[in-house]
Amino acid sequence: MSTDPLSSNPETGSKPAGPLAGLRVIEMGSLIAGPFCGQILADFGAEVIKLEDPGKGDPMRQWGRSLPKGQSPWWPVIGRNKKSVTLDLRQAEGQDLARRLILASDIVVENFRPGALEKWGLDFETLRASHPGLIMARVSGFGQTGPYSPRAGYALIGEAMGGLRHITGEPDRPPARAGISIGDSLSGLHAVLGILLALHHRNQTGQGQVVDVAIYESVLSVMENLVTEYDLTGYQRQRSGAILPGIAPSNAYPTAEGDLVVIGANQDTLFQRLCEAMQRPDLATDPRYQGHAARGRHQAELDAIISAWTATLPTETLLQLMQDKGVASGLVYKAADMLADPHFAARNAIVETPHPVFGTVKMQNAFPILTETPGGVRWPGPELGAHTEDVLQAVLGIAADEAARLRGRGVV
Prior knowledge:
The protein is an alpha/beta fold. The chain contains 18 helices and 11 strands. The chain folds into 2 domains: 280 residues, Rossmann fold (3-Layer(aba) Sandwich), CATH 3.40.50.10540; 90 residues, formyl-coa transferase, domain 3 (2-Layer Sandwich). A hairpin with a 3-residue loop joins strand 10 and strand 11.
């Protein structure tokens, strides 16, 4: 649906790459869950118009442990490839402009608490009466239905109720959380998946639909057999620290230089190769370690033997030895390791893009890699309202003097 000049890169004028070019998305909401969905859609060529509150914008513009040059390092990533339009949805004129933008678009992504769009007259049923092909992805803590749907829900709540928090951390300590908002990211990914499924359905029938994404369900979906195992056996999976119980050897092991190297040799053939590398053929024939189940029963003592050996070797020596023996291994990376790694460079996994304040910023590329229609980073998160007048003119035909009036009233 997006055919206006704004579908090109506003910084360079180049046409967007990616298989979603030609689709227009209205992104509403803030923080991570909905905007991460919008980031992915924009990475792969969709024209994503992000609606932000005038004067404030998305809180991600201010979030982060540090604010170099007074700006968040988070915003260039989650706001990348998007167009920022300021719009006050609490005003009737703002709601009308949002409605007009939505009716000129293919997809809406929102992560307000359920009921917010209905309060503003922007609910799906009302909108699809004029736009039957509209796809609306709604991301919330508990979904659009059910007794918990009105509740506020952040990633940590979804991670807890989805089962992840209980099994994360050391067994003798309270549950830990991942170092990222994984519940938000998973729900954003599920929103993208749902949108693509809905697009396929629309291509066949012309009909749009709601993609109802709950954060707790997005977490639940990746919990493997946790529920089924409990249902069939009564066993409740517990926290196990750095290991998966019964999967051995598969852990992070220390090197002589203080690094940690993960080694996965839990299959019989891989374990035999590891024993050869260790010059410990006796381990491969020891009844305690023969077979997957036996190694699992003696996991702690096997890890102790391997750790004592790896601690005698320099990091690169250990990694090269594992590579030579065909044993899966890898250094536990930090950001500096990623930036220095030749494989990351060869696959363009981290890219550098111009930034008006920082000069340039480095960030992860668009994934997955598509050989014919790849995504990419065309520009970092824009300044608040940078595209307001352009979008209003190109999409809605609003003249410059009318846009100035709207700005004077605080609508945009």
